[in-house]
Amino acid sequence: MKQPRPIIQVRRLRKIYCMGDEKVTALNGVSLDILQGEICCIFGTSGSGKSTLLNQLAGMEKPTSGEVRIRGVRVSRLDEEELAAFRQRSIGFIFQSYNLLPSMTAVENVAMPLMFRGIPKKEREETAARMLRQVGLGHRLNHYPGQMSGGQQQRAGIARAFAAQPEVIFADEPTGNLDSRTTREIMEMITGFARQLHQTIVLVTHDPEMEQYADRVIRLVDGTIISNRVR
Ligand code: ADP
Ligand code: MG
Q: Is residue 196 part of a domain?
């Protein structure tokens, strides 16, 4: 069998936030490889640097030093315009607070990232409706986020992330606001899509229950990786 290639390569990544005279070291020299198609869970307590790490990986913030490559592209070296194009093409995000646009329906929210791909409106809406049916929201296509439960909003968030079939999906505490039954449903949905589409997932969480869904388990303490193992 062909050896899966690393799709994400991180080397000696440091992020120091300066707040006046005070310096906060959020990431203290993180190195890791994540393989194509892996579901990678990064565990850490609150303040350990999980969100900071995802933000550097997705190119939302510039690292203080070190390097992030996604499929060989040095994310940290891209300028604003290249970065925007790269994110639209290659990266999906699932958020703890769902981040759906309140003025758009479920279909419009899921269809939106497809617009950046130049897909015509009718096709975008068909894809969005199909994805929403796959996450069990066929009866909520024209609902607004405010008319849906948290679990339903997150299912729409999952449909949106997977609809554009990005190379990597980053998820920041995607079940942080959900009860344990909904958490299981959401995780089964994320991992089900990931397996079906051979999608790489990087999920950060403080919830030890998530470990069962992971191929790779990384533990972060005070901005440092203390373990990295394949299950
Ligand atoms: P986690 O997501 O694991 O809870 P974060 O990555 O949000 O942790 O934060 C890691 C550390 O960096 C914390 O000490 C936090 O206070 C600090 N931090 C995060 N973002 C900023 C920022 N924008 N400015 C200053 N400090 C920050
Ligand atoms: Mg966080």
A: yes
Evaluate: CB of 18 within 6 angstroms of ligand 1. Answer: no
Does 192 sit in the ligand 1 pocket, CB within 6 Å?
A: no
- Per-residue pLDDT of 58-107, as tens digits, reads 999 999 999 999 999 999 889 999 999 999 989 999 999 999 999 999 99
Residue 154: give the domain boundaries. 6-230
Query: Which of 17, 21, 219 maximizes ligand 1 atoms within 8 Å of its Cβ, making it the mutation to test the pocket?
Result: 17
H/E element, 54: helix 50-57
Q: Would you tell me how many other CB atoms lie within 10 Å of the CB of residue 59?
A: 24
Q: Is residue 1 part of a domain?
A: no
**For the domain that residue 118 is a member of, what is the CATH number?**
3.40.50.300
CA distance 109 to 89: 17
Which residue, judged by its Cα, is nearest atom 21 of ligand 1? 17
